[in-house]
Amino acid sequence: MLPGFKVSLGFTIAYVSLIVLIPLAALAARPWEHGWAGFWSVLTDGRVLASLRLSFVTAAAAATLNLFVGMIIAWVLTRYKFPGVKILDAFVDLPFALPTAVAGIALCTLYATNGWVGSLFAPFGIKIAYTPIGIFIALVFVGLPFVVRSVQPVLADFDAEVEEAALTLGASPFQTAVRVILPGLAPALLTGFSLAMARAVGEYGSVIFIAGNMPYVSEITPQLIIIKLQEYDYAGAASVGLIMLLWSLVILAVINAAQLWLFKRGRA
């Protein structure tokens, strides 16, 4: 049996405060060592803005691709039985278990101009490694399991009789997918999208090797924070981190509002 409400609530508040709230409060307090002028100079710095734009745009693009691909993979793993399905299911979790540095080295080896995949595109003048394209691929790699594992349990519990009833009533397979299946999967898809994007925005280990880290071109925000820390600019690093935090909170608020809207629409 779990303890009573007061004990459980006290433990929850204390744990969340120690693990989440106090570190975030320290992050929010550190940038103001140089006052508002120092924070504003970091906020308006072109290099910082370029890295933020690259990190958030590529993270959103990677999460969007994973949204569609992950749904298809979850559908195949749930609805079809074939030899090797368990092995394929285990491979989905590989980005979870693989150290991020190892993943970055492997991706860089594959997509460099002399790599197995990169050499196929090099004759056409397409460079993958050390460009935003390489960052996008790395973020797709680390974010895919979040979508698959968010959608897969919902699909497994989805009542197949509802689909059969829709087909019996004359709905086409496309109409059944759009009007019957997708509305039930929408909250899980949004959850997977938010988790994949949150992981992609803060990803460092698997991206750093393939990014190239060229300012204004392929420099991600986590790398810029590391650079400021190496320069002993702790207030500047905290300022960039605070900006990332604020943008992340805004995105999560929008996603949560969309989930609430879908929940109310489903109950209406």
Automatic annotation (TrEMBL):
It is a multi-pass membrane protein. The keyword Transmembrane applies. The keyword Membrane applies. Its main location: membrane. InterPro entries: CysT_permease, MetI-like, MetI-like_sf, Sulph_transpt2. It comes from the Bacteria. It is found in: Cell membrane. PROSITE patterns: ABC_TM1. Residues 52-255 form the ABC transmembrane type-1 domain. One of its GO terms (molecular function) is ABC-type sulfate transporter activity. NCBIfam families: 3a0106s02 (TIGR00969), permease_CysT (TIGR02139). PANTHER family: SULFATE TRANSPORT SYSTEM PERMEASE PROTEIN, SULFATE TRANSPORT SYSTEM PERMEASE PROTEIN CYST. Part of the ABC transporter complex (TC 3.A.1.6.1) involved in sulfate/thiosulfate import. Part of the ABC transporter complex CysAWTP (TC 3.A.1.6.1) involved in sulfate/thiosulfate import. Probably responsible for the translocation of the substrate across the membrane. Belongs to the binding-protein-dependent transport system permease family. CysTW subfamily. The complex is composed of two ATP-binding proteins (CysA), two transmembrane proteins (CysT and CysW) and a solute-binding protein (CysP). This is Sulfate transport system permease protein CysT. It comes from Asticcacaulis biprosthecium C19.
